[in-house]
Design goal:
16 strands; 4-stranded mixed beta sheet; Chloramphenicol Acetyltransferase; disordered N terminus; 21% strand; disordered C terminus; 5-stranded mixed beta sheet
């Protein structure tokens, strides 16, 4: 395994990292962009092999040891992967506590909610809590400036691979790629014809888009807790989703994204984001395939707008196929960063696009520790704008969980709770085989929340 950053060179921050650095300068006292998972591991656990696997994974994921500096006020920050900042695994036995799982979660939440100073603090922490004779919680926390959700999933899967190898099963596999190798690749991309093609695509796309809302950094209010709801979806729903995806020859994540978009179109009031026949959705793109970033924990996720066009007379199956084709077209240009688009569109320093509504589908398989049951739990995924839908599940669509997040200044509690009831119902009903031939307009008009909004509008005319 190579040493962390053997040349000891300072490296520039990537565009998304610079965006989070700017956020920190506006919100230095708020732990707003901390991400954390814990993996519950239960069974015939070899503790020594588990600790060894976690330690090696932490060392391979060199971004976890990142340190930043700015020498002068206003100067662009630089980063280095510092061996002295490699996170040290804490091993804590809680079996003597009353309610060991609760005690572990309280300790994790204390760490998650603590302030992080990007200029001086270690940006990642790891702990292994023993909460039973055959049960552990492995806690992983990092600031979003160094890793995204998929990066944490890579860390979990790499650890499981090493654990299985140390237990005598399977190959050790390849270590993670270095951050320097990704930065070299990114430099080549930015000097390439593909970058210029991607830039032209997004300039044209934004040129045709209707007004997209811009947020000033100083207007962000991360101190007020938002509404959050976690809704496990039944196994029958996953079966319906897979069957409907096969019927229209789509991947289930795209189908779920588009059907959720139709629900939002049906229930959203008309604004600059939502016209009578379209709605702008914000969709995360991993931006990793075909890159060394596919096997490197870091902050690489991109967020791009998708202008979903709705023809009410179009059959649902045709809408889905047409929209999925547009999504595939966007993905061919998804490495081009939203931060660069913002600059090209003339957004000033200290402002950014308002990423709402956002739909995020995360088909990440849980890590497999041989002889054990392992389950990933999400503790923190960073701040969210406006209204957000997040679906998490296995790669085949099983064990889906819907998370709803909303800004209470923009969505009232009763409305938020209604979405929690109506969205799963809308999706389940719309995935019935007979619905694929029906006009899209029928579906959006039958949405319970849309009916409620029309009744309100009739009772309280503008």
């Amino acid at each position: 395994m190579p040493d962390i950053n053997p040349d000891g060179d300072w490296m520039p921050l990537t565009l998304p990292q610079l965006d989070f650095w700017e956020e920190f300068t506006f919100q230095p006292d708020q732990p707003v962009s901390t991400v954390a998972h814990y993996v519950e591991i239960e069974g015939d656990v070899d503790e020594a092999a588990l600790k060894r696997a976690i330690d090696q994974t932490i060392r391979e994921a060199e971004i976890l040891s990142a340190r930043f500096r700015t020498e002068k006020q206003g100067e662009a920050p630089m980063q280095i992967c510092d061996p002295d900042l490699v996170p040290e695994l804490q091993v804590i036995d809680l079996r003597g506590e009353d309610g060991p799982p609760t005690a572990a979660i309280e300790l994790m939440e204390q760490d998650l909610n603590a302030k992080l100073d990007l200029r001086s603090d270690k940006l990642s922490a790891h702990a292994l809590y023993r909460i039973g004779d055959a049960r552990y919680f492995w806690y992983i926390r990092a600031h979003h400036i160094i890793v995204d959700g998929y990066g944490l999933a890579l860390i979990e899967r790499r650890c499981a691979q090493l654990y299985n190898h140390f237990c005598g099963t399977g190959d050790a596999g390849l270590p993670f790629h270095s951050l320097a190798s990704f930065l070299d690749e990114e430099n080549r991309y930015q000097d390439s014809a593909q970058w210029r093609t991607d830039r032209a695509y997004w300039a044209d796309y934004f040129g045709k888009a209707e007004g997209i809302e811009v947020l000033e950094r100083g207007d962000e209010d991360y101190g007020e807790p938002g509404f959050h709801s976690r809704i496990p979806l039944p196994s029958e729903f996953s079966a319906k989703l897979q069957a409907a995806a096969a019927a229209v020859d789509l991947g289930w994540p795209d189908l779920l994204t588009l059907m959720s978009g139709l629900y939002l179109f049906a229930t959203a009031p008309e604004t600059q984001e939502r016209s009578s026949d379209s709605l702008t959705l914000w969709l995360p793109f991993m931006s990793r395939w075909g890159s060394v970033g596919a096997h490197m924990p870091a902050l690489l996720v991109n967020i791009l707008p998708f202008r979903m066009q709705v023809n009410r007379s179009e059959p649902l199956a045709d809408f889905l196929k047409r929209s999925a084709k547009e999504l595939r077209q966007q993905r061919r240009h998804s490495r081009f960063r939203i931060e660069q688009i913002s600059k090209d569109q003339g957004l000033s320093e200290g402002s950014r696009y308002f990423f709402s509504p956002l739909i995020n589908v995360l088909p990440f398989n849980s890590p497999v520790f041989n002889g054990c049951r392992a389950q990933r739990h999400i503790l923190g995924s960073g701040p969210a704008d406006g209204f957000n839908l997040t679906f998490r599940g296995e790669g085949d669509g099983r064990e889906l969980v819907l998370s709803l997040d909303a800004d209470p200044d923009l969505t009232g509690r009763k409305e938020f709770e209604r979405h929690g009831r109506d969205l799963p119902s809308f999706l389940s009903r719309s995935l019935q085989p007979e619905m694929l031939g029906r006009p899209v307009g029928d579906l959006v008009e039958e949405t319970p929340s849309a009916t409620h909004l029309r009744a309100v509008a009739q009772h309280f005319p503008m």
